[in-house]
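> example.struct
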């Protein structure tokens, strides 16, 4: 059931991704994928490859991969709400809410996951290559929230500790790494950004869970969605959560 617990939470982006141990698709496969999805994602661009992520010594390290065929392909819908990204060793699907769009349009995690699974299935059949768990290096689940803070203070949004209150949470800029369990790790980034065009201050909250040991692909995403909800509720005040329901 596709339920949205916090309908008016400032969710700006949800990203589901999969990274393979080796180059999984050849240049001809990339061109087939582009041709398949050009009608659904008509705005296309090619960029440098996305780096791989490794967790070592309690820190995330980013390594560029040189064998990704023809780099990163990005394909967007006309409305900008969906972004399909793929390269020789990766595939990611982004749901996006632009900052100027009203809250309340989040389609729900289940719909995003269903769309991601369908794309993986179609691509696998298209290039006649099955995706096996042993081929996967890691998977990822990202939630990005972007809230307007011009009419409030951060202590009204976040559950703060005494240090943050004393030393000035309004200058917050945090980049943290956490070990979860079962080969899962959390990258958390929190900081102030300025919205282009109107110079409004926004608080940017990005939580990415990486999984390096996956037994069941769909179950991993469902389980980490629950963890994302727990992180969100532990971070935000009860009063604000009530307003966002």
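> example.seq
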């Amino acid at each position: 059931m596709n339920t949205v617990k916090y309908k008016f939470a400032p969710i700006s982006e949800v990203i589901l991704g999969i990274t393979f141990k080796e180059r999984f698709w050849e240049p001809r496969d990339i061109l087939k994928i582009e041709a398949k999805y050009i009608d659904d994602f008509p705005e296309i661009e090619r960029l440098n490859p996305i780096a791989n992520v490794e967790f070592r010594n309690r820190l995330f390290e980013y390594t560029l991969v040189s064998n990704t065929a023809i780099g990163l392909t990005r394909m967007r819908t006309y409305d900008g709400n969906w972004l399909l990204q793929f390269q020789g060793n990766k595939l990611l699907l982004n749901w996006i809410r632009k900052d100027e769009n009203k809250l309340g349009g989040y389609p729900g995690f289940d719909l995003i996951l269903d769309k991601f699974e369908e794309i993986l299935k179609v691509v696998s059949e298209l290039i006649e290559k099955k995706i096996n768990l042993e081929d996967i290096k890691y998977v990822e689940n990202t939630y990005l929230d972007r809230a307007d803070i011009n009419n409030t203070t951060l202590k009204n949004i976040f559950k703060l500790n005494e240090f943050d209150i004393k030393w000035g949470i309004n200058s917050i800029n945090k980049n943290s790494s956490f070990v979860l369990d079962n080969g899962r790790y959390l990258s958390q980034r929190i900081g102030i950004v300025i919205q282009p065009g109107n110079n409004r201050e926004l608080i940017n909250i990005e939580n990415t869970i990486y999984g390096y040991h996956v037994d069941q692909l769909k179950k991993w995403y469902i389980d980490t969605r629950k963890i994302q909800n727990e992180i969100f509720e532990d971070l935000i005040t009860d009063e604000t959560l009530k307003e966002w329901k």
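> remarks
The chain has one domain: 11-244.
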